[in-house]
Amino acid sequence: MSSSNTPSPQPYATESSQQIMKPQPKWFHLYKYLSSTSNNKVFIDPNGVGHFNSMTWEPPCELLDSGKTYLLKFEIPGIDKKTLSLQFNNNWITVAGNKEMPKQEGDFCFTEILYGQFRREVPVPIDASKDGIKAFYNEGILYVKLQKLSESEWVNVEIK
């Protein structure tokens, strides 16, 4: 029940809140997931041995929508592409591999370069097709190109 003396709530919109209220792109939930899960996090592997061998890391990535395709880019400099593994399963791309530590003379005072095993699992939009995935590695970047499903591949189902 409402009282005649109680004002009804009025929407309050500023210029910045109107920007927030705009509809989000269909991949926005992926952005939120990616930003909450990585950016050079290093995880300790309890089965590892030694300081450098006990770390698993996640390479940074970005997802671009170019209309008919998606382009997923992973920043993985300094690796041999033969050590890379790429899989697509249930709208997730998984990249894994190993970045070998080069032989060095002397001891590190410090290092910000990540070595060892890495793995990154990234959700892709639901309209990304598993067919026709192309991947190539160039100048430290792994590029994964995904075709979008055409509208003809979506099926309308009659409800009875």
UniProtKB/TrEMBL annotation:
<comment type="similarity">
    <text>Belongs to the small heat shock protein (HSP20) family.</text>
</comment>
<dbReference type="Pfam" id="PF00011">
    <property type="entry name" value="HSP20"/>
</dbReference>
<dbReference type="InterPro" id="IPR002068">
    <property type="entry name" value="A-crystallin/Hsp20_dom"/>
</dbReference>
<protein>
    <submittedName>
        <fullName>Small heat shock protein C4, putative</fullName>
    </submittedName>
</protein>
<feature type="domain" description="SHSP">
    <location>
        <begin position="52"/>
        <end position="160"/>
    </location>
</feature>
<dbReference type="InterPro" id="IPR008978">
    <property type="entry name" value="HSP20-like_chaperone"/>
</dbReference>
<keyword id="KW-0346">Stress response</keyword>
